[in-house]
Structures are given as C-alpha cells and as structure tokens.
Design a protein that fits this description.
This protein has five helices and 27 strands. The protein is α+β, with helices and mostly antiparallel strands. Strand 8 and strand 9 form a beta hairpin. Helix 2 crosses helix 3. It is globular.
C-alpha cells in the first residue's frame, strides 16, 4: 500500500513538472498555452471608434484587451470593404479608395469585438458635411437666402502648376487637344482655349507659369532667387491664366487618369453631378465651405474665410487686423519673381497662410477660383443643392486675388467673367460629389 502511494506521488510530481515546462516561454512569445483556471478575456476596445484617412495613406489602430492580466491577448483584424480600406495583422489600416469601411478587431479568447468606422477621402481633399446655411450677406451679396447642401468633398488647395503640367501632358499624349503650341492649348470638340500660355499680349506681362516646349508641358524656371542662388520653384504655386473651360477640362482629364467617371460633357460643358469624378464646386458649395465653422454656426459673410476675429468689409474702423494671416492680397502679396506689371505683385505657394475650419487653404486671396455656375442674381427663395441657371454669359468666380483690397476677400463676395477668359488672378480648386 505504501509502495503504491509512493508511485502515485512520483507520477503526480512528474505530471506537474511537465505541465510547468509546457507553460514556459518557448521563445516565440505568442503561443503560450492557457492554463486551466487562468484569467479569461472579458472584452476589447480600440483607440478610435472612427477616423478619416486620405487615399494612399495609412494609420495604425491599437487594440486593448481586457483585463490587463488576460492569458491570451491575441486578436485578428478584418475590413468589411477591402476595396475602400484594408487592415494588416498589426492593425495598420491603408486607404484604397473614397468611401466608408468598418474595421473590426476580434479576440481569439471569447470572440469579443470592437469596431472603427474609417472614412476614406480623396487625396488632398476634405470631407464637407452637408447642412443648411444662409447664403449671401447684407451689403455684400443679396438677397440672403437659405441653401441646403448634401455632403461633398472639396480640394484642400488651389490647383497648382505641377498638377496642371502632369495632367495636361497625359491629356496631350491621349490626343485630347486639337491645338497645342507655345501660345495656347485648345481641346478637341468645340476648340475652347484652356490655357493661355502667351498672355503678354494684354500689356500686363506674361503671367502663366507653365510653358510648352518640344512637345512637353513644364513649370517655368529661371525666375527670381530663392535666397540660395537658385531660381524659385513655382511648382506649388496656383495655376493661373486658365479659363473656366480649362478648369473643367482638367477635372475630366484627372478623373480619367484615376479611373473615375468624368462629370463634364465637353461638347456642351454640361455637368453630371452624380458621377464620381472631379468637378468644379458650385457657387453654393464654395461659399458653404468658405464660411463653415461647425455646421451650426457660420462665419459672417463679410469675413475672410477662416478669420473669426473680425470683418474685412466694410472698412470703417472695426475690421479684423489679422485677415492677412489667412489671405494673400494687395497689402501683403509683395513683389515676386512673376509679378504682373501693373500691380507689381504676384501669387504665392499654397498653404503658406492659415487654413479655415475645414482645413482649406487660400479660400480668400491668392487667386480667384472658378465655380461651376453661370452668373445670375440671387433669388430670395430657399434652395437645395443649387447649380445655378442652365445658361448664361459669364461664370462665377469666388475668393479674391493677390491684387485685391481686403474688402474683396469676404467669403460672400462674388465676381463673374466669361468662361473663355483667363487672367493672372484666375485659378481654381476641384470638388467631388460624396
């Protein structure tokens, strides 16, 4: 009997010894068996419940498994729409295309889950949540009227010389132009002038910062001194001397380059706003984005976009003294290597002034921006997603430029010009339907 009891005791010791060896760290650090009676997982959380990522960018999510002393903290990751966003085994989310995807983390022990909604926005654009605001401003643009807009995307920056060079070189190779030389660029179809390359015929000097030499578009060089003995790099300055037709055509060409559905019919220049390609913002979208604060309160229409401290019009002793922090205009644009002859001032590189509440730069000043709408007087009734009249003579421009006085920088200020015209102060930014 004693001998049998001793054998049982020895067997128990051997069993426990083997169990303890099996529970040790084998060097891998992740395949630790769960000991019966050890702490079980009770839940999991993520460091974010929602996030916004630009196309082509990545962000890492972090999962926290509870309790802290849980024996098995391993998790798995998944995306419900990998065409929008993918997720790696370490929680790194990569944005693929505009849209929304839900990222889920799941614990191995217990199957607990947590989710993060990922909104993917187009590259260099911001998401603008829809809402209702009072468009116009007494004494600036009247009558003031109620406008309701759906969600949309807006370009973070004014379109640059480098962007136009890239897109127009692609378009030229694709046979999109009926005429292209050192003086002008004209589209196939109704042969509108898209970009004026030799605008020195207007006695203001040559302002277009893009040239066409040897079959290739490029950004001009050899202008000015950057302080290091080199010429100023004008790649990230806003493209100017582009007509409304040129801005709309650019949007179509960029859409095709990225595999999106173009919005414009270049035979009649109508716009299909339901397509997912790039387009010019409507005048209402432009003002909404310029005056947006939080979707409840709105920047007064006589302020420069982003400047909540005071107005820039009328000039009667109470105006803001800091709107120059948000805009390039006559008083601060200064002499530049490409200054026009009549004002001795010029454009400036994007994002060198403060952004507005949405993260949009240069909504006031630097260059006027083409909008989609034909010009007309405002009506007094409320409207939903207005796109302006179906025909007209001039198209709308917004925002003011580097030669303007401060009163022209108001977020509700309007201007119009013929769509075939171009200027050293005319540029654009693009939008997309959400």
């Amino acid at each position: 009997m004693r001998r049998f009891a001793g054998m049982v005791f020895v067997g128990l010791i051997m069993f426990l010894g083997m169990s303890l060896v099996g529970c040790g760290d084998d060097g891998g650090g992740s395949d630790i068996p769960i000991i019966p009676g050890s702490t079980a997982v009770t839940g999991v959380s993520l460091n974010k419940s929602s996030t916004t990522i630009g196309v082509g960018l990545s962000e890492q999510l972090t999962a926290t498994v509870e309790p802290a002393d849980a024996a098995d903290k391993s998790v798995s990751w998944s995306s419900d729409n990998e065409s929008i966003a993918t997720v790696a085994s370490d929680g790194t989310v990569t944005a693929i295309a505009a849209g929304i995807a839900t990222i889920t983390v799941t614990t191995t022990d217990g199957g607990f889950t947590a989710v993060c909604e990922v909104m993917v926005i187009p590259k260099d654009m911001v998401y603008v949540p829809g809402g209702t605001f009072q468009m116009g401003y007494d004494g600036v643009a009247t009558p003031v009227h109620e406008v309701t807009l759906s969600n949309f995307y807006m370009g973070k920056y004014e379109v640059t010389n480098a962007q136009v060079v890239e897109v127009f070189n692609w378009a030229n190779a694709e046979g999109k132009f009926v005429e292209v030389n050192e003086n002008t660029v004209r589209n196939t179809g109704d042969s509108q002038e898209l970009l004026d390359l030799d605008d020195d015929d207007d006695d203001e000097g040559c302002h277009c910062l893009i040239e066409y030499i040897g079959g290739t578009f490029s950004v001009k060089s050899g202008l000015g001194d950057d302080g290091n003995g080199d010429s100023v790099d004008l790649s990230n300055y806003p493209c100017v001397e582009i007509s409304w037709y040129g801005a709309a055509a650019f949007c179509n060409y960029l859409s095709e380059m990225e595999g999106l559905t173009p919005c414009y019919d270049l035979s009649d220049w109508s716009c299909n706003f339901s397509n997912n390609g790039y387009r010019l913002p409507t005048e209402a979208e432009w003002e909404y984005a310029a005056r947006y604060i939080d979707g409840i309160s709105w920047l007064p229409g006589n302020h420069a976009s982003g400047d909540e401290t005071g107005y820039c019009y009328p000039i009667d002793g109470g105006e803001s003294t800091v709107f120059g922090d948000y805009a390039w205009y006559y008083d601060n644009s200064g002499t530049t290597p490409h200054s026009d002859l009549w004002s001795s001032r010029g454009t400036h590189e994007f994002s060198t002034k403060a952004a507005n509440e949405l993260g949009l730069y240069d909504m006031s000043g630097n260059v006027y921006e083409w909008c989609y709408d034909w010009w007309s007087s405002y009506g007094s009734g409320s409207d939903i997603n207005p796109t302006g009249p179906i025909s007209g003579t001039d198209r709308v421009l917004r925002g003011g430029d580097f030669t303007d006085d401060s009163n022209d920088l108001c977020a509700s200020n309007r201007r119009d010009n013929a769509p075939f015209e171009s200027s050293s102060g005319f540029g654009f930014r693009f939008a997309r339907t959400y």
